[in-house]
User: What shape does this take?
Amino acid sequence: MSRLSNKWQLFALRRQTGREVELFFGLIHISNTNGLTLLTAIEAMLAKHGLRLSNLCGQGYDGTSNMRGEFNGLRTLILKQNESASYIHCFAHHLQLAVVAVIKHHSEIELLFSIVSNISNVIRASAKRRRCSSKKHVVKILETLQSGDVKIGKGLNQELVLKRPGDTRWSSHYHALANLTPM
Assistant: This one.
């Protein structure tokens, strides 16, 4: 589950045993992130592909209460229907927590991300500053397109949105720097 463009999105993939195959099922926009809504969305996605929750052998995500809550978390709701669906805390989330721990022990890096966060907060707090930042980015893209210094194609040269580095958002530190650098 991720939050992109201020919309919650749920994604799922299928890993087939016996072969190294992963199939991406797609994205679903969801209205909220409670366990029951997530379960309903997952069941609908599986049914669309001719699969059932009873065939699920594993589940993995971060440790928020809506995901692994003891009573109404997604993990618990799935395990009520399928005891074989083992839960594994997401390794990407573990990596993010390790990155945050390292940053907090290096004052120069911590200062860098504090400044990046402050810049993001200042620009994002004002519609006028967001428009100005966006216009400057568009002008930069047009200049590089005209000079031929940039590739064009689907998914390239998208409008960038400033991101804040966060302790629990996977790859948020990377995206915070990557989206600020071209601006």
Residues 45 and 51 are 8 Å apart (CA to CA).
